[in-house]
Amino acid sequence: MQPEPAFLLHKRPYRETSALVELLTLHHGRVRAVAQGVQRPGSRSRARLQPFAPLHVTWVGEGELKRLRLMEGHGSAALLAGEGLLCGLYANELLTRVLPGELPVADVFAFYTVMLEVLPRPEGRAGALRRLEMAALEALDAWPRFTDPEGGELDPQRRYVLDPASRAFVAGEGGIDGRTLRLLARGDWSEPGLAGPAKAVTRAALAPLLGSRPLRSRELMRQLAQRRRPGSH
Question: Could you say which DSSP state residue 193 is in?
């Protein structure tokens, strides 16, 4: 196979000197593989195999678990720290959890690449994450329909909550008003005041895919937010 662009999503030790890795690849989506020898001291591959660093890889194997054959660096890693780093860790954990193996997700790869360019700048982080979440949901055919259960338009004056089973919105207290949802349906995600509703929609749509096990990165972000509040210790 030709070397394929990829990013490391997750890595853990495997046997004495190898690692089990989860990769996001351009043409094959999430690929799980053994990277042999990368835990060995002085391994050049160990230095290359880092989160947020663009790679070119090849692999062999017919089963779910592949074996990496070639792994080359293809540029510098995104320099992330603090909240930007936590956002990147969230994206990696999310994609590892929700993407099935070897489902082609070229749009997800594209939005992930753009996200890494944006995360060092605080003002762009929320939008970059929402676009990545949207791409993942669309690839999994789990994106909300932005209609009522019968396919009708949402009433701008009523409030709605997402029904994950039908991917439609049903009237409900404490939900999001129909006017806002209609803006989101048109793709007006950058309109003032839509950051919170957009996050609520993607979180509700992702919940069934994630199941009951919480995301560790989400808990770390919550802890960081608490420490930043006035009077917190």
Answer: T
Compute the distance between CA of residue 30 and CA of residue 15 in angstroms, rounded to an integer: 22
pLDDT tens per residue across span 54-100: 999 999 998 999 999 989 998 889 999 999 999 999 999 999 999 99
Nearest CA among 143, 114, 117, 147 for reference residue 205: 143
DSSP E strands, the chain? 4-14, 18-25, 29-35, 55-60, 65-73, 159-163, 168-171, 176-177
Are 210 and 98 spatial neighbours (Cβ–Cβ below 8 Å)?
Answer: yes
Strand order in the sheet with 176-177: 168-171, 159-163, 176-177
What's the pTM?
0.91
Q: Under DSSP, is residue 231 helix (H, G, I), strand (E, B) or coil?
A: coil
pLDDT in tens, 150-194: 999 999 999 999 998 899 999 998 899 999 999 999 887 777 889
Q: What are phi and psi of 45, to 5 degrees?
A: -65, -30
Give the residue carrying structure tokens 């199941």. 211
Residue whose token pair is 């919480």:
214
3-state SS class at 67 = strand
Torsion of CA 29, 32, 38, 44, to 10 degrees: -10
Signed CA dihedral, 19, 137, 220, 119: sign only: positive
Angle, in degrees to the nearest 10, between helices 106-118 and 82-98: 170
CB atoms within 10 A of CB 112: 23
- Spell out the domains of the chain, with CATH numbers in brackets: 4-73 (2.40.50.140)
Cβ count within 10 A of residue 144: 21
How many Å from the N-terminal Cα to the C-terminal Cα in the chain?
53
